């Protein structure tokens, strides 16, 4: 049984819409049948035709789409929301209220008020809600989480996490449309770099280690002259239980493409993980032995290994990571339909995880605004 | 316009069939509508249903399928052949004779007689023929070829190419079904390792450098006791024009996953390329400066860069490489249908390239059989 | 002309004494002729005999040695002080007062009072004073400084520097004698990790970038239960002119041997440098091109290249870095003797640099003690 | 007790003489007291004065030096021969006949006649003879040998060894004096690249694996137009017992500094070793686990670890490798003087190992000359 899904956003000119569609296509377990790809209906029509979607399911507005699809017998099983950040809340709310499962790009919302409301609504409606923190989908990230949970590196003591990019190093550098809205407070909220990259860092550390943040001390800087929002951020973190963390996110670090890197130091060992080389992970034991393990090796835990599509040495990457989120989400949606769902099946970032990201951003903004002081969670 | 394609082979238990389907899905430019997935019709039926194919297009035999699809008005635009090596010839021949474009997994055939016949037939019928040498599809491999063609490393002097794997290091190790037929002369021809891996090496070197082999001296060894076919091979190569090459392929090299590596040394510089890290390429100039370039960088030539689907730092891998072969093939098939095709559009390995691989294997077999002597091409 | 030198500390059981002697031996430009190797005179005698030193120049106390050597016509040209940190001040003072040039291991002293006094004294007596921040001696570190000074990466925006080690990850792990005194407040002052590793970080960043610290915010933690002094430290830094820095030092980071790493991000490019692989340096331009340069390459600036003893590819390491400090120091001492000295000849860390390290530590201690607040310099 | 040694060759303009002296200085267990540094006596005098050697021990000829030093009561304990290859034989012979232990740079001689004669003479005179194959001195190389000898990777199946350099990529490139004699048949024998680099490869493989060569098939090419001697060589090797090897040496491989790399594949695991990164070694087990071990780790075997001078993370390199050869050689010479010597103490390449290198070169020359045929040992 293949599921049916719809998409809001992702029209001509959008990068992320196509990326989600490609990731879902990779396994072919869900088919795109409806969309409101743009606020410009011409764009929606053109995109829809290109994608082979029936014209009656190309909608002028997300609100109309939510309503219509909810009423159709063959309506969509879930919606994918890939619009600018500041619009996530209203769109997700409309679909949740229509009783439709939601996948929403991160960051979930622009403030915790919105985030907690979506969280509440999803729970109330008993709907599944995927927030697409892509990197949590990597087999090696899942494996790292399994290793830490099972005590392989002992108790976590300190976490070094960073996510530098260099593409906004110039005042007018910038990736066109993408770069623009990321630097516009109206569309991005009060942060650019930390909101975009810091939420990934917060999520991947939480996913891998299970640590809960107790308080943060942030220094959010605007480096490039003339820019309004932060483009280089330092955060000190204290977690419940006494572990500490140090995060760095940057968009002005020339030479870094998309360098999300996490290093977790426990009292029995260390784990090193790097998003740009997701096929391998380094595990170090207290005796100093450093072992590199590859996706597809016998050592990889079964739960993580289940997401491999190719033998090791045949590189998987970003699309596969995203596809892995959808693999679990789609499996859960199917189980919901078939009445076999249980919460233990969830192996993807949820609306709760999305809300944690927004909380993190808000606490950092408060810390930075007040002169880099500790802000309790 | 999305094309329609059929598949021969790729039923339950097959790895490579699913890999081709996923690669084609990634871009969604062709839809699977027909198949003869197995010699076991039950398997074909089950696979076809799972893939949502209409029952009347699930065929008991490839021969029947070729005939029926050729006669349908909505018949397939091309067929994908992913059966064991020894069956490639007959199947491809049937579809070519039916006037259908062909994509066939490598190696193309088990001897040059077969290969040249397919070459002849494709030319005679004026049909497109893709041989899926996956690694030639990597953006960085295409870029390497562009660099060399435009003289960036001067005249090529020597080529070091290797493709070691470790998965058949044990007599009974072995990847189940996959391992089995690879070690069976009846299904694989007179070679295992060189036929499988050596053809990749031959193709990627030819693709990158444009060099034509003049003669080879090969030492094909059976290392694991009890095995019949080669599992570790050395080949010395002389190319037309005076350059030399040294190739190593192995299936008993513990620790290597799928380590196809090519190093090309010219009189003005050097290029280093490694399949397991396909996102980057190293270019060294005579002054010793070593530059690492990533897929997605401005330096990447436009022809190669056109195949990127994600910004650099968002890893692409094996599926994308395969998808790139199909991207060009499908574009050409469309152009054929629309009457806009010209040979210059071909940016994929063809039946001629496939035949070169078989020629290489036959020359090496002769050399090895005769005590590691030079065999002229 | 070979110089004569003496040593205080470095008897049997000392690691660092032998390391200094070996480094000086490498070039053979100075000969050890006197010593007070231990507070235990038997140790001094035994060490001295083993090293072939005349008995009349083996001293019971550093004070006696300073006096006696100052009076001999063939007295030592300089002294090397390799005793525990808390004794540096008194010993260096004695030799400075005796008019003898000094090389002292880092950290220079245990507080700024001591450090500034040594600085004053050296200036007053017009004596040369080397503080052996080993890593500043690497050819590639000198090259990095040259590149930055000449504007190759534009204006520095942010600096990421870290120095993790793992050898004190356990409460009782730890390198015997060495580990002991490092964890003892009486011998190490009020810090262990930051005093030892943080001073290296402060120095190498200052050496490479020329940046002056304006203020620091430090979080100095004791991670291993039962320990008294810090073993894991985070520091946020603001430099004059607006650049920022983030430092991490740790002794509990399992898997790291001696991993001093500096990354400097400018508005025109980036420099990556790693102490454990000192033979290479990575320079990235704004266009994304990443160039790896090796010690011994034509690109290396002449001032840095002059310190190479071997062609590139023949690895140099820690002894050579230390030897490079001595090479410049000894050259300056000779020039002093010959009346040809000028301050521009100094290419080694001086007492002023040593004092900067102590200032850094004191500011961090104050910040950490007061709840991780900014402390102005 | 420090030994006394003399040197033949190593005058002004020589690179290797200073390299030997520095390596011996590092430990300070032997002192240079005599020399005939050049055929030009003025050079010998100038070099000797600079090194602080008494004038009566600066000799006009090696023959005179051998005779005079043999007669002095305080004569040298050993001689270091660092002259061009074609002169090694006569000089070593003179010192052996004078009863003086010898250290000679590799390659030992220019033909096996010379090599076997030196071997015979050393045995007859019961003298120690070190051939300075530097790379055999690396702690990690010794560790690799220990691992293989103790069966950690099972039975060796195939060896991939290469030693590419790029410094002679141009017809007139070339390192001045050094480059010149290496390309001159009169001084280098009938080979340049294989004689220089191939002997290192032969030795390090033999040292690590203990394998004995049965036969070779070599292709020795002159790549750079106008050159007389080989600059790019391929060699296929068969060892006794059935293992195989593939060697590549090159001086025209732009981008390689000094890239001696050895990969040993056994039926239980694999060892990867790279001379340019001698601080680490990679060991892979059959289960695919890849472990990187560093010099100084507990896993390093005691016999190898004994040669470490610094903790891991404090890089050691080329001088230390050379110093390690001398450490064992000097220890054996001392033991000879004290009557405590036994052959089991020898942990350095001997005249027998040196002769093996010459045998290898001669067999390769014969193979290449005869059209790349197998030549039995």
Main attributes?
2 domains; 377 residues; Rossmann fold; globular; five-stranded parallel beta sheet; nine-stranded mixed beta sheet; Dihydrodipicolinate Reductase, domain 2; alpha/beta; homotetramer
Describe the structure.
Four copies of one chain form a homotetramer. Chain A is of the alpha/beta class and 377 residues long. Chain A has two domains: 3-127, Rossmann fold; 138-305 and 357-376, Dihydrodipicolinate Reductase, domain 2 (2-Layer Sandwich). Chain A is 37% helix and 23% strand. Chain A has twelve helices and 14 strands. The first copy, chain A, has helices at residues 16-27, 41-50, 62-71, 88-97, 112-125, 139-149, 176-182, 185-188, 193-209, 302-305, 318-338, 351-369; strands spanning 3-9, 30-36, 78-82, 101-105, 129-132, 156-164, 213-221, 232-239, 244-250, 261-266, 269-274, 280-285, 290-294, 375-376. A nine-stranded mixed β-sheet of chain A has the order 13-12-11-10-6-9-8-7-14. In chain A, strands 2-1-3-4-5 form a five-stranded parallel β-sheet, with helices on both faces. In chain A, α5 (112-125) links the parallel β4 (101-105) and β5. In chain A, α4 (88-97) runs parallel beside α5. The longest helix of chain A is centred in the C-terminal third of the chain and has 21 residues, at 318-338. At the B-D interface, β6, β7, β8, β9 and β11 of B face β6, β7, β8, β9 and β11 of D.
């Amino acid at each position: 049984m293949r599921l049916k899904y719809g998409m809001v956003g992702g029209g001509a000119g959008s990068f992320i819409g196509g990326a989600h569609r490609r990731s879902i296509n990779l396994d072919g377990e869900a088919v795109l049948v409806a969309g409101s790809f743009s606020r410009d209906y011409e764009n929606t029509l053109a995109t829809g035709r290109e994608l082979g979607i029936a014209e009656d399911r190309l909608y002028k507005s997300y609100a109309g789409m939510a309503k219509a699809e909810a009423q159709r017998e063959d309506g969509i099983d879930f919606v994918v929301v890939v619009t600018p950040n500041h619009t996530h809340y209203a769109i997700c709310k409309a679909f949740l209220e229509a009783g439709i499962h939601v996948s929403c790009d991160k960051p979930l919302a622009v403030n915790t008020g919105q985030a907690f409301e979506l969280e509440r609504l999803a729970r109330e409606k008993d709907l599944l809600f995927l927030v697409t923190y892509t990197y949590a989908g990597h087999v090696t990230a899942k494996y790292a989480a399994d290793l830490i949970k099972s005590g392989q590196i002992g108790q976590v003591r300190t976490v070094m996490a960073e996510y530098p990019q260099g593409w906004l190093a110039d005042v007018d550098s910038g990736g066109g449309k993408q770069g623009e809205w990321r630097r516009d407070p109206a569309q991005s909220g009060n942060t650019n770099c930390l909101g975009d990259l810091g939420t990934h860092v917060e999520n991947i550390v939480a996913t891998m280690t299970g640590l809960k943040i107790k308080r943060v001390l942030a220094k959010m800087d605007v480096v490039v002259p003339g820019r309004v929002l932060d483009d280089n951020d330092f955060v000190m973190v204290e977690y419940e239980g006494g572990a500490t963390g140090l995060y760095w996110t940057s968009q002005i670090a020339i030479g870094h493409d998309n360098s999300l890197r996490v290093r977790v130091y426990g009292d029995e060992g260390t784990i090193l993980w790097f998003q740009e080389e997701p096929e391998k992970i380094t595990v170090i034991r207290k005796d100093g032995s450093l072992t590199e393990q590859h996706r597809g090796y016998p050592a990889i835990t079964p739960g993580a290994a289940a997401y491999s599509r190719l033998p090791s040495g045949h590189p998987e990457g970003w699309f596969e990571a995203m596809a892995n989120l959808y693999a679990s989400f789609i499996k859960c949606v199917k189980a919901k339909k078939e009445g076999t769902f249980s919460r233990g099946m969830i192996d993807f970032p949820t609306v709760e995880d999305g809300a944690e990201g927004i909380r993190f951003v808000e606490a950092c903004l408060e810390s930075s605004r007040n002169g880099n002081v500790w802000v309790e969670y």
